[in-house]
Automatic annotation (TrEMBL):
Sites where the protein binds GTP 2: 192-199, 239-243, 304-307
Lineage: Bacteria, Pseudomonadati, Pseudomonadota, Betaproteobacteria, Nitrosomonadales
InterPro entries attached to this UniProt entry: G_ENGA, GTP-bd, GTPase_Der, KH_dom-like, KH_dom-like_a/b, P-loop_NTPase, Small_GTP-bd
Recorded superkingdom: Bacteria
The protein, known as: GTPase Der
Function: GTPase that plays an essential role in the late steps of ribosome biogenesis.
Source organism (scientific name): Sulfurisoma sediminicola
Gene Ontology biological process terms, A to Z: ribosome biogenesis
Gene3D superfamilies for the chain: 3.30.300.20, P-loop containing nucleotide triphosphate hydrolases (3.40.50.300)
Length: 451
């Protein structure tokens, strides 16, 4: 399961600055999609081949009793409880405050692995800064500057140490899997905000079907995988909230958890994003969708409770989706009723197609041909005196498909042109259902691109 780093600290210590730094590398992979707004509190990070989640709890006031601050504290509490690693940020310039001490006590009680991070320490003597904060009893302080990036890499390495050896093993397994990829059983996550009908869909999917094996969730910290079979095809359902079998039906044993949802999305090959037709599309729907795209997951959109809405509402929902989730243009949409079992076969059909698209093999000659045709139809715009030269393309990965384009002066290809190319590749290779990543690799020779 993907590790989650949770940033905690009083207001103004630099949590957002650190959050941005930790999530920046991953963001850079996603061509900026119109309409996609990022959640400022939940993000992806990556160190080498190890992905991780970062959660910024905002200003944490453990003593607040009511109001918005209390609500934030409540959310922070649940993030703390679910953290794999807590990063407790303090301000090296302000020095130790009583509020820091109160937070430290609270964090130690959680029993989660904890690292004390002293921020804003650029230009300061590390040993001296560390000495002051040692007395907090949170172990050796890590001295960093989030604004300048000093010590951030070491911080992440230390925080992720328990996962790093495991990564090596996972990676070999993943590389080995690749050849038999399409035969592999897809992992499917059903994601969506509270009350959209996820449990109902799971029950409709699993209820009467043969569940091949089902482990009772002993430790809820690990992803629970439920293998099932439908119409002779095998799938593995990644649970987002801790499923428990109660008689013939499944029920979720935990309330909605953003972190569990995001972990399941990361773990899955295909995400079924569920929204509620009786409600307008919300920021939270858009954030979950955006997160799935950043993770590169294949995606199917299920608009649920279609039975409960009239024609007027149906039209309105379609317009709303087109407007607020327009960056999901690559995904197939199904209007369904999880409760009545209507449209469910369609969802699985699209899961199959999205998975096949996500694992598509694209040979270099074909890719290069499609690239050539695309450039011939519309050349990339000039940048200053040079025009980017796109020479050939090869496939750099699957789920999501990564297309690596080689050439010269590729640093200045605009995002709009990248989206144009994405469209060309999508169409040529029939990649509907999966996002696509394009990466550019410029040749080093500065004279090669004169034209
Ligand atoms: N000198 C210095 N300033 C920093 C550093 N990191 C953050 N800051 C500054 O500290 C201030 C607060 O940073 P934020 O990242 O907004 O802090 P925060 O903890 O997210 O604050 P809240 O959103 O109020 O919880 C900003 O003015 C930052 O520019 C650093 O490494 N060095
Ligand atoms: N009319 C109608 N109601 C539905 C449908 N699917 C689910 N519901 C109802 O919506 C409510 C929420 O359904 P759940 O399946 O519990 O939703 P959930 O997304 O699992 O909710 P959380 O566990 O809170 O995340 C229940 O009252 C369901 O009966 C549907 O297709 N049509």
């Amino acid at each position: 399961m993907i590790p989650t780093l949770v940033l905690v600290g009083r207001p103004n210590v630099g949590k957002s600055t650190l959050f941005n730094r930790l999530t920046k590398t991953r963001d850079a992979l996603v061509a900026d999609l119109p309409g996609l707004t990022r959640d400022r509190h939940y993000g992806h990070g990556r160190m080498g081949n190890q992905p991780f989640l970062v959660v910024d709890t905002g200003g944490f006031e453990p003593t607040a009793k009511d109001g918005i601050v209390h609500e934030m504290a409540r959310q922070a509490e649940s993030a703390i409880a679910e953290a794999d690693v807590l990063l407790f940020i303090v301000d090296g310039r302000a020095g130790l405050t009583p509020q820091d001490q109160a937070i430290a006590d609270r964090l130690r009680k959680s029993g989660r692995p904890l690292h004390l991070v002293v921020n804003k320490a650029e230009g300061m003597v590390r040993a001296m800064v560390a000495a002051e904060f040692h007395e907090m009893g949170c172990g050796d302080p890590l001295v960093i500057s989030a604004a300048h990036g000093d010590g951030v890499r070491e911080l992440v390495e230390l925080a992720l140490e328990p996962w790093v050896n495991k990564v090596g093993a996972d990676e070999t397994a993943a590389a080995g899997d690749d050849s038999a990829a399409v035969a592999k059983v897809p992992k499917v996550a059903i994601a969506g905000r509270p009350n959209v009908g996820k449990s109902t869909l799971i029950n409709t999917l699993l209820g009467e079907e043969r569940v091949i094996a089902f482990d009772m969730p002993g430790t809820t910290r690990d992803a629970i995988e439920v293998p099932f079979e439908k119409n002779g095809k095998h799938y593995t359902l990644i649970d987002t909230a801790g499923l428990r079998r109660k008689g013939r039906v499944f029920e979720t044993i935990e309330k909605f958890s953003v972190i569990k949802t995001l972990q399941a999305v990361e773990e899955a090959n295909v995400v079924v994003l569920m929204v509620d037709a009786s409600q307008d599309i919300s920021d939270q729907d858009a954030h979950i969708a955006g997160f799935a795209i950043e993770a590169g997951r294949a995606l199917v959109l299920a608009v649920n409770k279609w039975d409960a809405v009239d024609d007027y509402r149906r039209e309105r929902v379609k317009v709303d989706i087109g407007r607020k989730l327009n960056f999901l243009g690559f995904a197939r949409v199904h209007y369904v009723s999880a409760l009545k079992g209507q449209g469910i076969a369609g969802i699985l059909g699209s899961v199959d197609k999205a998975w096949a698209a996500a694992m598509k093999k694209m040979p270099t000659p074909q890719l290069t041909r499609v690239l050539g045709a695309a450039v011939q139809k519309q050349a990339p715009p000039r940048h200053g005196l040079s025009r980017p030269k796109l020479r050939y393309a090869h496939q750099g990965g699957s789920n999501p498909p990564i297309i690596v384009i080689h050439g010269n002066a590729l640093d200045h290809v605009p995002a709009s042109y990248t989206r144009y190319l994405e469209g060309c590749f999508m169409e040529a290779f029939k990649l509907q259902g999966t996002p696509l990543r394009i990466q550019y690799k410029s040749s080093r020779n500065p004279f090669a691109d004169k034209d």
